[in-house]
Design brief:
With 188 residues, this protein is an alpha+beta fold. The protein has five helices and eight strands. The longest helix is centred in the middle third of the chain and has 17 residues.
């Protein structure tokens, strides 16, 4: 399967859940991606997206972070009945215990998409790349994300300070870890 979709085309789904598709983002997603990550409720919860991030920067980011069957990468999240409409993203870094990250835009938040996307994404990561564990961090003022991590079986692994390109100062973060064994036992 060719996963390098052309501009304007919807990329093939790498992961399907009951209601969602996780797919490579394409250049046509740049406007939606930019709108979501610069939203004042979303941007400060993310590491790398400043409030003045542009669609041009989003297009470059999409190209640089697409799935190439190795870590790191990022996928777009869309409803299965509207696969061309980007509603969020999931991604993973590289490492012995890779960090995962995710967000859903405010227009689609509160409908269970974040949790559903992450269940599918974690299943894909553990099956395809066989990490011993995955890590995540979340700003303490992001209770929705903490709730998702807890529901997925992530366990507290420490505290720290984190920076966001959309925050003026570092802010407290909570660190989490999920072992493959724990995920598999909870998924049965």
């Amino acid at each position: 399967m060719d996963l390098s979709a052309q501009d304007g085309q919807v990329s093939a789904a790498l992961v399907r859940t009951k209601r969602l598709v996780l797919r490579n983002m394409v250049a046509a997603d740049a406007e939606a991606l930019c709108r979501i990550v610069t939203h004042p409720e979303v941007g400060p919860m993310l590491l790398r997206f400043p409030p003045d991030w542009t669609p041009g920067a989003a297009r470059e980011f999409i190209h640089e972070t697409r799935f190439r069957d190795m870590l790191p990468f990022r996928l777009g999240v869309a409803w299965a009945d509207a696969p061309a409409r980007l509603i969020g993203s999931v991604g993973v870094h590289v490492g012995d215990e890779p960090d995962i990250f995710y967000f859903i835009g405010p227009a689609d938040a509160g409908r269970g998409a974040g949790r559903e996307a992450m269940v599918g994404f974690l299943s894909f990561l553990f099956a395809r790349f066989q990490p011993v564990a995955l890590r995540a961090d979340v700003f303490d003022d992001n209770p929705a994300s903490k709730k998702i991590l807890s529901a997925l079986g992530f366990e507290p692994a420490g505290r720290g300070m984190g920076r966001s390109a959309a925050r003026l100062e570092p802010a407290p973060i909570s660190l989490y870890r999920l072992s493959k064994a724990r995920f598999e036992s909870l998924s049965r």
